[in-house]
Amino acid sequence: MGSGGYSSQDEKKYIEFMKQIMNQEFPKGHYVVNGFTDFNVLADGDSEQGKRYEIKAKIEFKVNDSK
Questions:
Q1: How far apart are CA 64 and CA 24, in angstroms?
Q2: How many alpha carbons lie under 13 Å from residue 43 in its C-beta half-sphere?
Q3: Angle ∠(60,27,37) on CA atoms, nearest 5
Q4: CA-wise closest residue to 15 among 4, 24, 1
Q5: pLDDT of residue 66
Q6: pTM attached to this predicted model
Q7: Residue 67 has pLDDT above 70, yes or no
Q8: How far is it, in rounded angstroms, from Cα 17 to Cα 40?
Q9: Residues near 13 by Cβ (< 8 Å), separated by ≥ 6?
């Protein structure tokens, strides 16, 4: 199952869209998904010095038919 979220204050159209996504039913269209994470990796048990990583990704895809 897919993931997503909405609140009762969101527009009805958005809620219906999110329900489709959560059921892995992507409506026809062009999608752009942006992701970002950052974290530190400690080296050799050193609890104060670590290497910081920042990863960004952009994925684009098209859905021509949702069936």
A1: 15
A2: 4
A3: 40
A4: 4
A5: 60
A6: 0.57
A7: no
A8: 36
A9: none
Mean pLDDT, range 17-24, rounded to an integer: 88
- Positions of E strands within 1-67: 29-42, 50-63
Residue 20, Cβ neighbours under 10 Å: how many? 15
Structure-token match 């489709």, residue found: 20
Give which of 54, 5, 64 is closest to 31, Cα–Cα: 64
pLDDT of residue 47: 64
CB 26 within 8 A of CB 59: no
Q: Which two tokens stand for residue 58?
A: 């952009």
The pair of three-digit structure tokens given for residue 1, joined into one six-digit string:
């199952």
